[in-house]
Design goal:
The chain is α/β, with parallel strands linked by helices and 355 residues long. Helix content is 30%, strand content 18%.
């Protein structure tokens, strides 16, 4: 098992399984994430037999950086996984700190019409350690401080639910990376059963639902998942998340002549009425495989004004990474599988964390 994919709870259960004190799990977790050890034998507080067993059962293997592109506001990384597949990760530079956009799958099955990532088709889920590894590489190897994490890269996080939840538990655990829950946002295309399951968790992170249309007729064409989970079901599931005064975000990509009319704006305001939410308007980033055109700035402004007048909290997303094909909907690994060679050496995340 890879240590970077093991939650504190799983590590405690591991110690219990061979009659050891589960409190030792916290020692290991602290050493791995606070001191960035590269070997269990660097842990001084545990006996040699325990260290031997840890060394037998766990590995420290990480990802390999094979490409990096950078602009003023964005850095895009291409990471190679142990089996040769590749995923992309993006760092977005904000005034208040750096956000990291991680991928959760190799490819994606959602097949959204406007999204380049969905054209890749899902090959497999990422393991928890492969999601964690994207963040660890950026923080520990590249020494880039990270304040926010968004699960908005390649893949549908709720189509890889268990590994996604393990990743969140690892990076928010006080014994681990200790990122605040409120600084993490999961984006979903709308897998209703998983939204409901997620809403039952004791501590919730931010949740963004990719809505992108106010009617089933339009959304069916843009997002095939709507045929399984239509808007009415999706909105009801979203309301469950907002119990306890939690705010949810609805993402709305603006496509010229498709979903940007006044009628669409009023309909959107109608279906979201009474929900504790934000609407995040996203200017469309053109992709090679889609024939959509972005709404012009004046149309976006008019759409925004209607939603505001109807009482919704609305923002327009700042554009990041379009010059690197790293913006919303543009991530798509050009060669999703690179043949492994004898030169492939997995990285071990060492060095102090770039908090």
């Amino acid at each position: 098992m890879n240590i970077y994919g093991c939650t504190l709870k799983k590590l405690q259960d591991y110690f219990i399984s061979f009659n050891e004190n589960p409190a030792k799990a916290k020692i290991v977790f602290n050493e791995v994430y606070k001191n960035n050890i590269s070997s269990f034998y660097d842990i001084k507080k545990l006996s040699l037999p325990v260290l031997n067993k840890l060394n037998e059962d766990f590995s420290f293997e990480g990802l390999k950086l094979i490409d990096k592109k950078e602009s003023e506001s964005t850095v895009k990384f291409l990471f190679q996984l142990l089996d040769g597949y590749s995923v992309e990760t993006v760092v977005m530079k904000h005034d208040y700190g750096n956000g990291v956009c991680v991928s959760t799958q190799v490819g994606c099955n959602m097949d959204c019409a406007f999204c380049e990532s969905g054209k890749l088709k899902k090959i497999r889920n990422l393991e928890a350690y492969e999601i964690t590894g994207q963040l660890l590489y950026i923080k520990t190897i590249l020494k880039i401080p990270v304040s926010h994490v968004v699960l908005m890269g390649i893949g549908e996080p709720f189509d890889n639910y268990e590994n996604t939840m393990d990743f969140i538990d690892i990076i928010t655990d006080q014994a681990g990376l200790a990122l605040p829950h409120r600084h993490i946002t999961i984006s979903t295309s709308g897998i209703v059963p998983k939204i409901r399951e997620y809403a039952k968790r004791k501590i919730l992170n931010g949740l963004a639902i990719s809505l992108h249309a106010p009617t089933d007729e339009i959304r069916n064409e843009l997002m095939p998942i709507n045929r399984a989970y239509p808007i009415k079901e999706l909105i009801e599931a979203a309301k469950e998340y907002t119990y306890g005064n939690k705010k949810i975000t609805f993402a709305y990509i603006m496509l010229k002549g498709i979903n940007d009319s006044d009628e669409c704006a009023y309909k959107l305001a109608e279906i979201l009425k009474g929900i504790n939410c934000y609407v995040n308007i996203i200017p469309y980033n053109k992709t090679p495989s889609a024939n959509f055109e972005p709404s012009d700035k004046e149309r976006i402004s008019e759409f925004f004004d209607i939603l505001k007048k109807e009482g919704l909290n609305v923002t327009v997303r700042r554009e990041f990474g379009s010059d690197l094909n790293a913006a919303c909907g543009q991530l798509a690994v050009k060669y999703i599988k690179k043949k492994k060679t004898t030169e492939f050496t997995p990285v071990i995340y060492t060095g102090k964390l770039g908090m």
